[in-house]
Structures are given as C-alpha cells and as structure tokens.
Amino acid sequence: MTSTRNAVEANFDGLVGPTHNYAGLSFGNVASQSHSAQASNPKQAALQGLAKMKALHDAGMTQGVLAPQERPDLNTLRRLGFTGSDANVLQAAGKQAPKILAACCSASSMWTANAATVSPSADTADGKVHFTPANLTNKFHRSIEHEVTGRILKATFSDERYFAHHQALPGVEHFGDEGAANHTRFCHEYGQAGVEFFVYGRYAFDSRKPAPTRYPARHTYEASEAVARLHGLQDKGVVYAQQNPDVIDKGVFHNDVIAVGNRNLMFCHQEAFLNQHEVLKQLTASMNNQFNVIEVPSARVSVEDAVKSYLFNSQLLSIDGKTVIVIPEECQKTPAVWDYLTELRDGNSVINELKVFDLKQSMSNGGGPACLRLRVVLNEQEQTACNPNTLMSEALYSRLTQWVNLHYRDRISEIDLADPQLLLESRSALDELTQILSLGSVYPFQQT
Ligand code: SUG
C-alpha cells in the first residue's frame, strides 16, 4: 500500500523562454491586447518566475520546473510555406506575415496551467497519475504547444509504472481544451480520492445553451468530459460547471482568472459560474459537506478589478498547517482588492498569510502566479519517480539564474523576432537547458 499521508501538491512552473514578447495575440485577454507591441524584457521575465519558484521552495513546497519551447518555431513556419535557410524563413515571414511570425515566436508555454490537465493517482481507475496536454485550439500561437509539451511532461514524469500520458484531444474548436486553468481538484488530504472540478465556457454540440457574445469561450464541455473519461475518473468524483458567459465577455478567458481552490477551500467571485448556488451546493455535497467557500461579493470587488488585479489567479498553498495565498503585486495596487485581502488575513478566515510577488513581465500578457504553475499531486513513490533534475533546489536556482543571465536578452520588440541571431541564441540556450534538467532530446531541432 502506498502512503496517502505523505502525498504533496507539487507545483511545476514554466520557465519563461528567451523570446518572451508582447504581440497582442490573445483576443479576449485584456492584458495581452493592451500591451501589444510594447518592448518586453525576457531576462527579467525569467528571473521573476525563478524568484517565485525559489521562494516557494524555501517555504517548504515541492517545486518543479518545466522547460520552455523552441521559438521561433521554424517547423510551423515551414509548414506554412516559408522556405529556404532558417534565416530566409524568418526574414520572409517577418516581411510578409509579421503576426504569424510573432505567433511562432511566443513564449506562451510559460503558462503551464495550460500545459495539461493532471489527475492524481488517488482519483484514477488504474491508480496512475494521468496527464492530457491541452490542445489550446482557440489561439494559433498556443495550438502549436501541445506536442512538445507532451514530450517535456514525459521527460519529467517518465516512469510508466506511475505515470500515464495521453495525446491532446482532437485539435478543433469542438474539443477546445485549456487544461488545468479550467480544472481544480478538491480533497481532504492530497493522497485521498478527491473531487475533480471541470469548468468550461460553452457547449460545442448544443448551440441553444448560453455562451459569451463578445469574447470567445475557449474551452468546451465536451473537452472536459473527454478528459474525465481518458483519466478514468469515477462519476461521483467529478463535478462540471459552466463559466458565467458575462464574465468571459469582461475578460475572464480562463476560470483561473475568477476562482481558485485548494484542498476543501474554494475562493471565487460571486459571478464566476452559471447557476453558482447550485454548483457550490453540488461541490459541498461531493465533499461530504466539509467544504469551505469564500465567495467575494461584487459589491466588494468588481469583476473589472478582479481581472485587473488577478486576485483569483492566486495560488492557495498549504504550508505548515496554514493556508497561504500567493498574489501578484497588482493586488496591492488595487485598493478594493487589497482592503479585501488584508481583511481576510486579519479576520477569522481560513486564509492566514499573503505572499506578494512581482511578476509584471508575465502579468502584462495576462499571466499571474496561478497561470505560471501546473499542479501535480504526487505520493511518496511518485515523488521519487519523477525526474529529480527538474526539482527546485539551491543549486538548480543558482544554475538557472546563471543560465538566464548568460543567454537572455533584456529587450525584445517586434522587429527582433526576424533576427536569425535570436534563433541561434534560443537554440543554444535550450540545448544547455536540456542537459541541466536531463530532459533528453525534446525539441524538434534536437531530433535526428
Ligand atoms: O493564453 N497570454 C496567455 C495567458 C495565459 C494565462 N493562463 C492562465 N490564465 N492560466 C493566453 O492568453 C499572450 C501572448 C501575446 O499576446 O503575446 C498570451 O498568450
């Protein structure tokens, strides 16, 4: 028997890639659209992400690192008809189709909440941890991530006795899947069977059902159901809910922009879900009536302030018997949000501590603390079975900091994306990274 007591929630954060830039690629994501064409600082972005990982490791969390993808993505550019040497491909794309080039240069795989949906072994029929990479069909620049994401996940969780890897769902809008950003697992103890909560934006096969009208609903009900089937989840351990279409139209492009959960706690906005009262009742019943809900009223924090501050794109962590909330600096700068949070901390709520991080580089593309991490619950044996070189430590932090300082630029704007030198810099950085993290050949340029 495996011990269920010593299971932990590990957080695997995406390391920001060397081509991090602001291209305004995500219609419906307010921050991405409003920072379009501004210059980015990839070095600062990667260091900000590493600082969060190191701080959570120091606080006692199990913290992992997921490698970025190879960008510019030359294979995709060639598939789209650009030919010749790598330099020719980049220059022709830059001239004829700068938006497509920008999409093929995005470092968006940093937001690993969208890498996959993960079901812990305590919930699955075969007792393995299941991973389904998200197809991210709604945005072209993200739809080209899942294949390499799958390889990186396999290189991180390779032992087939414990880990089961699925292919991404079919890459069409009907099965639009945004991964863990729309999935939360509730439980009493991490190692015990839990309740997997799947949130979707619309129904693909029933156009009479409610849907947003201004911005796209990226994730479908049919995708959520398919993932639950693939992972072998018990019906009684699954709850589905639809996002409130009105909040999608206000910029809530993923559920993790309006709700977050941990163990038996749900922290959400009053307007997060359709039929919210019913949804919370169902969750409470599935958790044997031992379920805490902190529902933030619109009168205290408007949906607009929630989107601007990323209050709910926080991480709720269990550390030394306390619940800590990890928030971006933007929460401190939004008065209604900060008042609410300090009241929570100082009052009788179950949230006892606030940890504030500067993640401005990622936030300017709509990626807060929760977007940057993929949660993987692991029991003791599974912890031992995962690739130890991807786990944060004093040594890995200093190695990765040196690596970033050596390889990354401190400024990228649109014009730089066609520079063949950027491709070479990115490839040599990633080549070294695969050795640091012992990943083997996960990138297309390394395949023979
Ligand atoms: O998919 N932004 C990402 C942000 C993802 C946030 N993830 C979660 N909420 N879990 C997206 O919209 C912007 C890229 C650009 O515009 O350059 C971008 O892809």
Low-confidence stretches are: none
Number of domains: 1
CATH top level assignment: Alpha Beta
Shape: globular
Architecture per CATH nomenclature, i.e. the level-2 architecture? 5-stranded Propeller
Question: What compounds are bound to the protein?
Answer: N~2~-(3-carboxypropanoyl)-L-arginine
Strand order, sheet with most strands: 2-1-15
Largest sheet: 3 strands, mixed
CATH fold name: L-arginine/glycine Amidinotransferase, Chain A
How does this model look, in words?
With 448 residues, the chain is α/β, with parallel strands linked by helices. Helices cover 34% and strands 17% of the residues. It has helices at 30-34, 42-58, 74-79, 86-96, 98-105, 140-143, 146-156, 221-230, 245-248, 276-286, 303-309, 329-332, 335-346, 360-363, 380-385, 394-407, 420-436, and strands at residues 8-14, 62-66, 116-119, 129-133, 163-165, 183-186, 195-200, 238-242, 259-262, 265-269, 292-296, 315-319, 322-328, 353-357, 373-378. The strands form 5 sheets. A 3-stranded mixed sheet has the order 2-1-15, sandwiched between helices. The protein is globular. The mean pLDDT is 97. The structure holds N~2~-(3-carboxypropanoyl)-L-arginine. The site of N~2~-(3-carboxypropanoyl)-L-arginine has 22 residues, from loops. N~2~-(3-carboxypropanoyl)-L-arginine binds at residues 22-26, 29, 32, 106, 108, 111, 113-114, 139, 142, 181, 254, 256-257, 365-367, 371.
